[in-house]
Every structure is written in C-alpha cells, then in structure tokens.
Amino acid sequence: MERLSANEATKLDSLFGKVGKTVIVSHTRPDGDAAGSCVAMKRFLDDNYGGEHLIVLDNAVNVAVNFLFEYGGVPVYFDKEPAAAGKALSDAGLIICLDVSGPARTGCLEKFIRASSAPKILFDHHLSPETEIFTTLISCTEVSSTCELLYDSLLKMPQIAGSTSRLSLECLTALMTGITTDTNNFGNSVFPGKLEAVAGML
Fold first, then answer.
1. Gyration radius of the chain's alpha carbons
2. What angle do helix axes 32-48 and 146-155 make, rounded to 10 degrees?
3. I want to staple 26 with a disulfide (CB 3.0 to 4.6 A). Which of 8, 10, 34, 196 is the partner?
4. Confidence check: pLDDT of 197 > 70
C-alpha cells in the first residue's frame, strides 16, 4: 500500500468528474481526523467538480470539532435519519471511505456500503486495510493521520498540481484539524514530512 501516484490521481480526476452523487463516510464516533478528512474531501470536490457530495456518518462527531461542518455542510447521521442515510448510500455513484481500515468500522453504514455496486475509494493510515472491497486503495501507515495522507494526495490532483494555495482555506483548516488532533497537538508522531506539510498549509 502506498500514497497516491500520479497515474491514480489522473484516474480519480476522471472518476470524480463523471459521478452524479458522491457519498463520503468515516468511522463511528468520529474524531478530529475522521471529521477533518470528510470535510476536506467534500470541500475539494465541491470546489472542483459538479454533482452532489454528501457526508454520511453513523453518529455525531466529538463536539470539539463540530465547527468543521460550517465549512462542509451538516452530515446525514444514521442514528438520527436512518432512512435518509441508507438511501444516500444506496443512490451513490461513488463511495469514499476515510480513516477506516474497512466498512466494519462505519457502524450501521457497513451493510449499505457492502451492498453498493458503486466504486469505492479508501484513504487510510491504519494497519491491515480490507483490500478486496475497494476500487482504489490509498493506504499508508507511515503517517499519523488520514488528513496528512489526504493532503499529500490532494496536492497530486491535476487541479492542485502541488500548489497548496489552490486548496481552499476551509479545506486546509479541516486537514490541519485532523493532523493536530491525531498527533495530540504535535505531542507524538512528529516527523520532518509532517512539519513540511503543516508549514505548507500555514
């Protein structure tokens, strides 16, 4: 498993441009990395592609990072709106899973993800990802957060072409939130590559 390659970035760009509805999901009881990566992904899609982009989560995020949804729209929560959440996943033309090693970590969303015939993309930093279900798998255990991996990946997309200034402030804020929370305010897993990424975001 590796970071996003230039060839994969081109393929994702083509896929993102063709999908009518993209549903973005993460693990149950979402933390800063889960919420941050979901909002950053949605903002990137909203800023660069047509179609509908929706975040669907099993239940509510930690209140400390709830502010992120001012940037990306309030998610559909399965525990509050099970029919709407299930329909969104059933209607999805693409499902993007973030900060999970597989659908099992998404709680009640799992059965809808497994039943869907839509292409599925994974961005994750945990050990032992479930490889079989995903069309594209971007998995790297050498980073401390999915937000760091997603930042690295978004820089390789054709619209961004390595220029952080082409990512919106809202997208960058969401990414920074995930990196900050998953490193306990830079108390652990602090390596040169992470500091270079954060410097670029600032």
1. 15
2. 20
3. 34
4. yes
* H-helix or E-strand spanning residue 138: strand 136-139
Mean pLDDT of 15-25: 94
pLDDT in tens, 109-130: 999 999 999 999 999 988 788 8
CA 6 to each of CA 48, 58, 70, 161: distance values in angstroms, whole numbers, following the listed order: 18, 33, 31, 10
Q: How far apart are CA 85 and CA 10, in angstroms?
A: 30
Output the pTM of the full model: 0.93
Give Cα 80 distance to the centre of its chain.
22
Q: Which residues pair with 52 in a beta bridge?
A: 21
DSSP 80: T
Give DSSP secondary structure letters for 94-137.
Answer: EEEEES-SSGGGGGGGHHHHHH--S-EEEEE-SSS---TT-SEE
Q: How far apart are CA 57 and CA 73, in angstroms?
A: 13
List beta partners, residue 97.
25, 122
User: What are the b/e assignments for 121-157, b being 16+ CB within 10 Å?
Assistant: bbbbbeeebbeebbeebbbbeebbbbbbbbbbbbbbb
Q: Which residues contact 189 (CB under 8 A, 6 or more apart)?
A: 144, 182, 183
Element (H, E) at 150: helix 146-155
